[in-house]
Amino acid sequence: MSSSLQNLMFKVSMLDHVSGTAGKIMKNMDRMTNRVQAGYQKIGVGMAGVVGSGYALNKLIAPTKEMDAALGEVKSLNVSKKALDQLTKASLSFSTQYGESATDFVRSSYDIQSAINGLTGKELSEFTTASAVLAKGTKSDAQTITNYMGTMYGIFKNSADAMGKSDWVKMLTGQTAAAVQMFKTTGSEMSAAF
After folding, report:
1. Model confidence, pTM
2. In this structure, are residues 173 and 145 in contact, taking their beta carbons and an 8 Å threshold?
3. CB-based contact 98:136 (threshold 8 Å)
4. Which end of the chain is more exposed for a tag (fewer CB within 10 A), N or C?
């Protein structure tokens, strides 16, 4: 064999040897790349699951957070812990009985306490319950009836204080409901009339 042929065969042999090893390295690199990509996909799916779980948990506890915030607003008006506990019980009872938001009930008590300063103990929960029931019964909203109650208390403060605020608000609620029925009106129209 000639030296050029030997030289060529040596080069081909070296090329085969190098390309075989390079091919194996490339296959290993491809497998590793595929595994890394699959791992990133699993991490992404896992992270999406974690984010989704966090979102679902947040949605689950959101009403509790809202209720705590509403109670905090009422507490800022120097309402006692005992009165807040009574208010919480009344709001849950109203919510269950009438299918309305307990948080909205508590928020309306903030407006009542602001309008009628000095409600103590059970008076705040009784005023709020009376207002909420009257709003429901007269096809009005809590804000309108709350304003109505505040206006009526301002007008009849002496009578309400002499009679007892809780008894007075029950009487006013009954009289207003009767007037709404008798005059075929609504709670909003009664409020506007005063």
Report:
1. 0.68
2. no
3. yes
4. N
